[in-house]
Design goal:
Length: about 290
């Protein structure tokens, strides 16, 4: 064996073992209902009637959509009385976003682990990112919403796979120097970012969402001219949204904000006063959504 081949062998072995490990992690297949919704939304001229028919075929999904549509978050002047009425009031894109979130929540369950807090935080992040994206005009609101829902989707999948992953999360959240994903990789040879990105591709989410999921703890990419602007926008907005949520719940210090907050603000063109203004707006949003 040549020296170069000898040097390459351990790397190849490592890659093979990581591939083998990933195959042991259960990534739910894309539900057919989501595929149908995505096909309709991708049409050049999406038809509200066809989307209504797709949703109305599933009684549980219809009930969940109506409950969300009539929640205080949307503050609709009229209450949606049917799926057709909800699609009419909210619009086809917003209904598609809501359906994606409902389907994800129902598809991903972990035995003996409650995901209520996980989904509550993911929903808040999606709402916050949608508002920030519209306010700052850095990316489409529906893209921000999708990323907000899915950026940590690898976490429940790893909770299901590794008995000690909850302990890993605690260590990663408190780690001041190493990246979040480096802590995960050291303990499990993979990370929620890598697994979440793989699931996003499996579920047919946009490529820039999948890439942003993969990179969302790598704040160096915010200064990388080779990284797509939409990917950097999603990463920066998510960091801002998450810190806003944490502050809303009384948590003033965040290791992730310390690591990436300055780069995020520089990328988004936000001064310290601007950041405080955005946080105030997010807190109003959350108060309104209670």
């Amino acid at each position: 064996m040549t020296s170069s081949a000898a040097q390459a062998a351990p790397k190849l072995t490592t890659e093979q073992s990581v591939d083998a490990l990933i195959k042991t992690i259960r990534i739910p297949p894309r539900p057919s209902l989501l595929a149908d919704v995505q096909v309709e939304l991708a049409d050049d001229d999406p038809d509200p009637r066809r989307l209504t028919a797709i949703i109305a075929n599933d009684v549980a999904m219809s009930a969940s959509l109506l409950k969300l549509a009539n929640s205080s978050f949307f503050g609709l002047r009229l209450k949606a009385k049917s799926v057709e009425h909800a699609v009419s009031l909210l619009g086809i894109t917003q209904c598609g976003n809501l359906m994606t979130g409902i389907i994800a929540r129902q598809s991903i369950q972990v035995e003996k682990v409650s995901l209520v807090k996980f989904w509550d935080f993911s929903t808040k992040r999606a709402q916050a990112m949608t508002q920030l994206a519209r306010r700052m005009r850095v990316c489409p609101g529906d893209l921000a919403h999708t990323f907000g829902l899915f950026c940590d989707i690898g976490i429940p999948l790893l909770l299901e796979r590794f008995p000690d992953y909850a302990e890993t999360l605690e260590l990663a959240y408190k780690e001041a120097n190493e990246s979040f994903t480096a802590v995960e990789e050291r303990r499990h040879a993979t990370s929620h970012a890598a697994i979440g990105s793989l699931m996003a591709r499996t579920w047919g989410l946009p490529e820039n969402v999948s890439m942003a999921i993969l990179l969302h703890h790598d704040y160096g990419v915010l200064n990388d001219p080779g990284t797509e602007e939409s990917v950097k926008s999603l990463i920066a907005l998510a960091l801002l949204a998450e810190y806003g949520i944490q502050k809303y719940h009384g948590q003033e210090f965040s290791c992730e904000w310390e690591k990436g907050g300055e780069a995020a603000c520089e990328f988004l063109g936000l001064s310290a006063d601007d950041v405080e203004d955005r946080f105030e707006e997010l807190h109003e949003l959350f108060n309104h959504s209670q």
